[in-house]
Amino acid sequence: MTKKQRKIFYPTIFILGLFLMAWQVTIFRNTIIDLSILIGIILIVGIIAFFVDFKNYGKTYKYSGIRLYLYSSMHYLCGFGFIVCSAFMLTNYYFADKTPVKETFEIVDRSSLRGRKYHRDERKPTFQINYNGKIKELVFTHKYYEKMEFYKSVELEVRKGYFGFDILENKTLN
């Protein structure tokens, strides 16, 4: 690749990784997976990409010293790391088993998130459940906020993901 092509390639990969990271948050909320696994994937892929391609990055940009290491590691972690992690999450999600299983879980804790940009006053209730020994936070729409203290359990339809991490299909408050 020429220097001109690499000057287009690195920012493109970085921006693509950031967009996929935003989408990955939605997938993460519907998947039972430990956050440390995802962070591990991002770090391992970012470090490998750093060692494989660092010379090319140094030839492409005129940074030196700590700035070179800081900017290049940011590109590799956010770009390549998030792309591979998103591919992992999306594969687990979209190639999951077709048959869901219904399970009921008791609510352990309650909290809320504020709404989006023009709906700041519309708080979204969040409920934490103990899902087979792991605490999982479930986010519901604003319409459940007023009566969030009355709900005692959550009924979930769960599918087994491609890599074995469970996927939440439907969630109902009881």
Verbal overview:
Keywords: Membrane, Transmembrane, Transmembrane helix. The chain crosses the membrane at residues 7-26, 32-52, 73-95. This protein is α+β, with helices and mostly antiparallel strands. The chain folds into 2 domains: 3-94, no CATH class; 101-173, OB fold (Dihydrolipoamide Acetyltransferase, E2P). It contains 3 helices and 5 strands, in the order H-H-H-E-E-E-E-E. It has a 5-stranded antiparallel beta sheet with strand order 3-2-1-4-5, with no helix packed on it. Strand 4 (153-160) and strand 5 (166-173) form a beta hairpin. Helix 1 (3-29) crosses helix 3 (66-94).
Average of pLDDT: 91
Radius of gyration: 20 Å
- Widest beta sheet: strand line-up: 3-2-1-4-5
- How would you classify the helix and strand content by structural class? alpha+beta
Domain unit count: 2
Strand proportion, as a percent range, falls in 15-25%
Q: Helical segment tally? A: 3
Largest sheet: 5 strands, antiparallel
Distance between the termini: 58 Å
Features:
2 domains, 3 helices, 5-stranded antiparallel beta sheet, 25% strand, 174 residues, alpha+beta, elongated, single chain, OB fold (Dihydrolipoamide Acetyltransferase, E2P)
